[in-house]
Every structure is written in structure tokens, then in C-alpha cells.
Amino acid sequence: MMNALTMDMMSEIDRFYITLQFELAKVMSPYIIWIPNIHDLDMNEANYLSLGLLVNYLSKDCERCSTRNILVIASTHIPQ
Question: Which of 36, 62, 30 is nearest to 49 (CA)?
Fold first, then answer.
């Protein structure tokens, strides 16, 4: 089992990884990011690519309008 310190470190690594991906996309913009199977992403922030981290990053960054040259497409095979 992971202790609390390890879980905190994993959460920080996840945040860094998502931030790094979007920073690379900004540098290479215009850019398209495709997220297949968005329904598989978890809402908590304790996994590799969580929906919560993604939404937080995009909503925070949209306020500064620095993602205007990045198109994010998320797809699913589950009809609603």
C-alpha cells in the first residue's frame, strides 16, 4: 500500500505531467489534442490523467486565453 507521502508525490507528478503536455502544445501551437475514451478518465485527481485535473487546467488557462491555438477533442463510444 502507498503511504500518504507517496500519494501526495503521485498527485504532484500527475499535475506536472498534464501541465507539461499543455505547455508543449502551446509551444507547438496551433495544435490538436485528442483524448480518446474520455469516459474512462476518473474524476479524482489521484490518477495519471484525471478528468478533474484536465478540467482544472483548461478552465484556469482559458482565463488567460493562452490556449486559444489549442483544440481539445474528447471522444467516447458511450451514447448519452
Answer: 36
pLDDT digits (tens, 9 = 90+) for 2-34: 566 676 676 677 677 777 877 888 888 788 888
Q: How many domains does the chain have?
A: 1
Q: Which domain holds residue 25?
A: 4-74
For the full predicted model, state whether its pTM sits above 0.85.
no
Whether residue 28 lies inside any domain: the answer is: yes
Determine, yes or no, domain membership for 80.
no
Half-sphere exposure of 54 (CA within 13 A, CB side): 16
Strands 31-35 and 70-74: parallel
70: β partners: 31
